[in-house]
């Protein structure tokens, strides 16, 4: 029996490095080419995620007014919009670029201050290093 697939969340420099949160290497003059490539790929992935959320909010603008509904209904509303959005995307339902006019590309909520070093998980560096090696071997993308 093989090892279960492990998933990680993408974070930026303000998040603590954990074995379940991938964050970029701190940008300085000491980064190797491989670490720079890792940071570049994380930025690209983050950009894809932000674009997906922007399209989701533009297609289902009810998500822009979630403060109008009860907290009990909110998870169901978001889930329904995600499912319908994915169905539309999978079936090449045209996305109207005009929908974006009512939506601002905003950053996802994140901590204002970098997490203290004491919150970092020492094992997480091994996960980041393995991902860095993987990105190096899987070619440009």
Automatic annotation (TrEMBL):
Its cofactor is a divalent metal cation. Its main location: nucleus. Keywords: Hydrolase, Metal-binding, Nuclease, Nucleus. Residues 99-118 are annotated as: Disordered. Residues 5-86 form the DDE Tnp4 domain. GO terms for cellular component: nucleus. The keyword Nucleotide-binding does not apply. This is ALP1 protein. It comes from Nothoprocta pentlandii.
